[in-house]
Design brief:
269 residues; alpha/beta; Rossmann fold; eight-stranded mixed β-sheet; 12 helices; 8 strands; 13% strand; binds NADP nicotinamide-adenine-dinucleotide phosphate
Length: 269
């Protein structure tokens, strides 16, 4: 379904660009209802030229021309960006922040005034329309959340969660692609060390990851049940998994996720 609101993007980086591309490709919004602005003028100009979106002359200009603003600068740039647009913000505006480790209270502090706010945590899968985006809002009417759900459906799936879970979301799905990339990297390394070319090893490792992901998504079985299905007694998979178990891989992984969670909490302060 096409959204009617005029949308602005502040920070045309990796993630902001991917979100808008999803909107255009799935025809959730047309380029004529979108304005972009980036501190690096060339970046915004290039995006606007490629997608025929409107180029704002400043953050204030962008906010003045739009109804919903996707805030996609780095967390450390929040206060500077806020200074540049807060004068143009009206109570009817919806600010959708994708800033990692940045609670809604911090956005309100930086921007001040009344406006709807949604906090979103997508992941890099957005670049291929396969992100999972956690969404939360303090807007009791839920209008901002509904709009954000439409916007982020352009780059994958969405899930509504309470804000108290956002550091966990960052550790699990925000950083999550890196854990799967590491697994692919290690599979490739093994292939190369044992005589495969890099291209051959990449095809085997990446396509295996794609197949496992699609199967886990399509199946009614849990990932644990699927793992057991490919682990026959006395077979090769069992031999590999036994080593991971005996070297305490689950505990190591648990520690890694706890470290990500702790870091997320520190950054949220
Ligand atoms: N990448 C991910 O996987 C991911 C996942 C979830 C959430 N996020 C969040 O998404 C946000 C953006 O990440 P990213 O990887 O897309 O970063 P990025 O590629 O660095 O994009 C941010 C862009 O915003 C620009 N910018 C900085 N200050 C600005 C201002 N005042 N007005 C307008 N533009 C400004 C930056 O310019 P300069 O380079 O000159 O500063 C840069 O071009 C971050 O807050 C991050 O926490 C990212």
């Amino acid at each position: 379904m096409k959204i009617k609101e005029k949308i602005g993007l502040i920070g045309v980086g990796n993630m902001g660009g991917a979100i808008l591309e999803g909107l255009f490709k799935k025809k959730i919004a047309g380029p004529s209802q979108v304005w972009v602005y980036d501190k690096i003028g060339d970046k915004a100009a290039q995006f606007s030229q490629q997608w025929k979106a409107n180029l704002a002359s400043s953050n204030q200009d962008l906010v003045g021309k739009t109804e919903a603003v996707i805030l996609a600068v780095k967390p450390q740039d929040l206060f500077d960006a806020a200074e540049e647009f807060k004068a143009a913000l009206k109570s009817s505006h919806c600010v959708i922040s994708i800033l990692a480790g940045t609670p809604m209270s911090k956005i309100r502090k930086a921007v001040s005034g009344t406006f709807k706010i949604v906090r979103a945590m997508p992941n890099l899968g957005a670049k291929v329309g396969e992100s999972v985006t956690a969404l939360t809002s303090d807007d009791t009417k839920g209008e901002g959340l509904a709009l954000a759900e439409q916007i982020f459906s352009g780059c994958g799936k969405t899930v509504r969660l309470e804000e108290k879970h956002f550091d966990l979301v960052t550790a699990v799905s925000g950083s999550g692609p890196a854990y799967f990339f590491l697994m692919m990297e290690l599979l490739m390394k093994e292939g190369i060390q044992n005589g495969l070319s890099e291209a051959e090893a990449k095809t085997l490792a990446v396509q295996t990851a794609v197949g496992a992901g699609l199967l886990a998504q399509a199946s009614i079985s849990s990932p644990e049940e699927l793992r057991k299905m490919v682990t026959s007694k006395g077979g090769t998979t069992e031999a590999a998994l036994k080593i991971l178990e005996s070297k305490n891989f689950p505990e190591i992984f648990h520690e890694a996720l706890q470290a990500a969670l702790k870091r997320g909490r520190e950054l949220s302060q």
